[in-house]
Amino acid sequence: DQQVKQNSPSLSVQEGRISILNCDYTNSMFDYFLWYKKYPAEGPTFLISISSIKDKNEDGRFTVFLNKSAKHLSLHIVPSQPGDSAVYFCAATLGAAGNKLTFGGGTRVLVKP
Amino acid sequence: EPEVTQTPSHQVTQMGQEVILRCVPISNHLYFYWYRQILGQKVEFLVSFYNNEISEKSEIFDDQFSVERPDGSNFTLKIRSTKLEDSAMYFCASSVPSGSVRSYNEQFFGPGTRLTVL
Fold it and tell me: Do A93 and B56 make contact, defined as CB atoms within 8 angstroms?
């Protein structure tokens, strides 16, 4: 099941620079997208989300962009900090509250001081 | 800040044994979920639960699995006869505060239970 894909398994970035994480999906019925951050031995922590009626959502250092025609979303982290080093998952879901999340495989981000 | 809790953090069991994984969702949330992550693989949906019944389950969630909300706070996942391939991190999540006025898709996850089947 490859409905949500994160093609870059890892990303290394210098502190203070921009981190760009990418995610592609195949199911055009998905209309809500989320990014989660995960540290080792912890559960996924919700970061930011976007509805398909928008193409951008911003929260502090985190911005998510959605390109529906390309079925592509990205997460920008500016500026990157060493505490951002973690695995980032994108997830997608359908419409109504309570529906399951379908996750990508994750991208491991390393922010170097 | 309210959070989802899970116990135990690590469970080791013999193949064929029954295990019960426990979760306390965020207290005013209405939907509850179980997901799992086998080492090196994606986080996979198992089951969702609403209004004291299963609302959706995946093909993974076969007759060996069951969920229960035995009281007003706990949410459990039971595996009746564990197999080696059940070894994974199991995550509980909850969502949708009661009284929400908007569509609410964010799910909040617990720290997980690492299940090791020998």
Answer: no
